[in-house]
Write a structure and sequence with these properties.
The protein is globular. Strand 6 and strand 7 form a beta hairpin. The strands form three sheets. The chain has a five-stranded mixed β-sheet with strand order 1-2-8-5-3. It has a single domain, classed as Cytochrome P450 (Cytochrome p450, Orthogonal Bundle). The protein is α+β, with helices and mostly antiparallel strands.
Length: about 400
């Protein structure tokens, strides 16, 4: 491999795994584009960096989510960008409302949403699966969690696409700047009204739970509430959209799995776990070094932006046997797709639940899915997935 790899090049976005493999083999710690990021590509190095926030600070996320051209972005003040002890304070407060019981209670509603969406998919007729199913499913769930106006779900795709694309938008992409700034303003205005309304008139929803949550007498501030709602709308929506989309794309590529899962629906959860490893939604999270540090014999300078390449770590042959083979019978647990260490994704159980239930509903209705056109991939340093997925479902 000659020259510096550009992680956002169209050919890399379409299939980054050969590039990742070459980097793991020849340059596991190196600089890449855009902007000369340092990239860690081996599982062991990525996991170690996640567990060492003293050196690999989460403030690095802010460098990709709040560039100078954007300025204010509540997402960039969320707990995902914080190190201890501030991170633990926010996570503790949020966790009081975001309980496993609260997530599990959603399953009947998730199934109802999925069934409604699946019934709208006409057998033998082409559809964009992202628009028709993968996006509205988690958007409906977020609306349910927060008791939001159902009419707003149509805006969620634009919100999530705009904010997740910030990391892939350069200073030269001026045509995108105002659109993204407008999205931030629109989200903040709408969600501020929601928070204010829940303070006046609490409901049986998570925003109300977050408003009233106390730990040692301390509550979330309005700014902290706003940052968490931005985090959940962006991270909770975009990553689940990609997980569901990747799942169906893999079923198209390996149709024998459709028959297997239709015959044994109890194995859908196992299938989802291998999708998370084989095609993770999150491919890289940025950290910034607080001091010069050596990784795999390479010295990374202080203040360097470092991309922890989850997408590469999940295909590391030192960690996984035959890593480029999709094997839903693979043994062992792999939590890397949801981060690692103190920032392990709080929404992981919900994402798994939505994907499992959504696939169970789809597989009960359709026997196969046929691709009908090229896939357009998103542009983001963090999340990788299709912006569209044209296909025909067959009954």
């Amino acid at each position: 491999m000659t020259g510096r790899v550009n992680l956002l090049a169209p050919e890399v976005r379409a299939n980054p795994y050969p590039v990742y493999a070459e980097l793991r083999r020849t340059a596991p710690v190196c600089q890449v584009d855009p902007a000369g990021l340092w990239a860690l590509t081996r599982f062991e190095d990525v996991a170690a960096a996640f567990k060492n926030p003293q050196v690999f600070s989460s403030a690095g996320v802010r460098t990709t989510t709040a560039p100078p051209w954007l300025g204010h972005n509540p997402f960039s003040e969320s707990m995902i960008v914080l190190d201890p002890p501030r991170h633990m304070r926010l996570r503790t407060l949020v966790s009081r409302a975001w309980t496993p019981a609260a997530v599990n209670r959603l399953e009947p509603r998730i199934r109802a949403f999925a069934q409604t969406l699946a019934e709208r998919l006409s057998p033998e007729r082409e559809v964009d699966f992202v628009d028709a199913f993968a996006m509205p499913l988690p958007a409906s769930v977020i609306g349910e969690l927060f008791a939001l106006d159902p009419a707003m779900t149509a805006r969620y795709k634009r919100w999530s696409v705009d904010l997740s694309s910030v990391s892939g938008t350069t200073e030269k992409d001026t045509h995108r700047h105002e659109s993204i700034r407008a999205t931030v303003r629109e989200m903040e205005d709408y969600l501020s009204d929601v928070v204010a309304e829940r303070r006046r008139h609490p409901q049986d929803d998570m925003v109300s739970d977050l408003v009233k949550t106390r730990v040692d007498g301390e509550a979330l501030t309005d700014a902290e509430l706003m940052s968490f709602l931005f985090l959940l709308v962006v991270a909770g929506l975009e990553t689940t959209v990609q997980l569901v989309s990747h799942s169906v794309r893999l079923l198209m590529e390996q149709p024998h799995l459709v028959a297997r899962l239709r015959e044994n629906p109890s194995q859908v959860g196992r299938f989802v776990e291998e999708v998370l490893r084989y095609e993770p939604s999150v491919h890289g999270l940025v950290r910034v070094t607080t001091k010069a540090t050596e990784v795999a014999g390479v010295v990374i300078p202080e203040g360097a932006r470092v991309a922890l390449m989850i997408g590469s770590a999940c295909r590391d042959g030192e960690r996984f046997k035959d890593p480029d083979t999709f094997d839903m019978d693979r043994e062992g647990v792999n939590n890397m797709p949801f981060g690692h260490g103190i920032h392990f994704c709080l929404g992981a159980p919900l994402a798994r639940l939505e994907a499992r239930v959504g696939l169970e509903v789809l597989l009960s209705r359709f026997t196969r899915f046929t691709p009908t056109g090229p896939v357009k991939w998103n542009t983001s340093l963090t999340v990788r997935g299709p912006l569209n997925l044209p296909l025909i479902p067959h009954a």
